[in-house]
Amino acid sequence: MTIVELVRPFAETLDLAVLVTDGDLDRPGPTILYANSAFARMSGYPVAEILGQAPRRLQGPGTSRQAARAVTRQLRTGGRFHGVLENYRKAGEAYLCEIDVRPIRGPDGQPTAFIAFERR
């Protein structure tokens, strides 16, 4: 069973946005493997359009570069990121997004994926 198959049944019923990415933090960043319908409503991106993209696609001119780098830095050190970023809806509208990203570790203890819970 894949991580997406495991997450999908409970994430689809949530009003909280949920993203699952792979574990590759090198640029352009992790790839979105799953997004629930709450994420689509929050971001304005249809799920099919955001899959395969990096979460940084949601960033824009008002997104703090320092905060965006902090996300990667904290995830690289094996930790979790919990904070607020200014993201952008597909239509260009900025919004503050509280993000809680946690690693999903493989048998060797290394992150193989990340799960993010997001809300406005």
Offer a quick outline of the entry:
The chain has 120 residues and is of the alpha+beta class. It is built from four helices and five strands, in the order αββαααβββ. The mean pLDDT is 95.
Shape type: globular
Report the average pLDDT across residues. 95
CATH class: Alpha Beta
State the major sheet: 5 strands, antiparallel
Total domain modules: 1
In the sheet with the most strands, the strands line up as: 2-1-5-4-3
State the total count of DSSP E strands: 5
Give the C-alpha Rg. 13 Å
Description:
- By secondary structure, this protein is α+β, with helices and mostly antiparallel strands.
- It has one domain (3-119): Beta-Lactamase.
- 27% of the residues lie in helices and 32% in strands.
- The chain has helices at residues 3-11, 37-43, 47-50, 65-76, and strands spanning 17-22, 32-35, 81-88, 94-105, 111-119.
- Strands 2-1-5-4-3 form a five-stranded antiparallel β-sheet, with helices on both faces.
- It starts with a helix and ends with a strand.
Which structural traits does this protein have?
5-stranded antiparallel β-sheet; 120 residues; Beta-Lactamase; single chain; alpha+beta
